[in-house]
Amino acid sequence: MNILERDPSDPQKQKKEGINPPLKLVLELGPLLVFFFANARGEWLAQKFPALAELGGPIFVATGLFMAATALALIASWLLTRTLPIMPLVSGVVVLIFGALTLYLQDDVFIKMKPTIVNTLFGGVLLGGLFFGKSLLGYVFDSAFSLDAEGWRKLTFRWGLFFLFLALVNEVVWRNFSTDAWVTFKVWGIMPITLLFTFSQMPLIMRHSLEEKTKEGQASK
Description:
Elements: H1 21-40, H2 42-48, H3 50-53, H4 58-81, H5 86-105, H6 109-131, H7 138-141, H8 149-176, H9 179-188, H10 190-200, H11 202-207, H12 210-220
């Protein structure tokens, strides 16, 4: 049995490895929303559920629930597809490791550093893959786009740089602003920035889309 999602070039990947897009969005954003809500209402949650009070203040309650929600999202992905998406899996492992350190040491620096570690890792992997001639972004977008080799290389390079940018932004925010400001930015700032970046890549995607080239070829006949 193949535990991880298949390589984009594997013809078996197209055979029902995907998740309904709205559900996929819930699985990806759900843990972040849980994190935001728990941090904002940590004291209320601790009063309603005394066991949570043992974790510490609001940020620690939020961290514990974030870990649980992340694990549940990965379990749901496995139950629905019998595979684990690579990038959410890597992010989830880092969440669990750094979340555990945060709770054990009662130091929120570890959970604040998690986005820096994950984004640096993703950016390094994408750019490193290009160095070895591999456009690894296909693991993320191959079900949505069909691009030529040059298109995948360019898109992978841009996303690699973007991940490193997100890592830098996270460092600036958590080191210079309050915990509440960092949590708010993590949930409500990173997503709009990512969406804007994604939409800005549409001209590149359209230029290198194999489907568009096929349509143009058919129209010229």
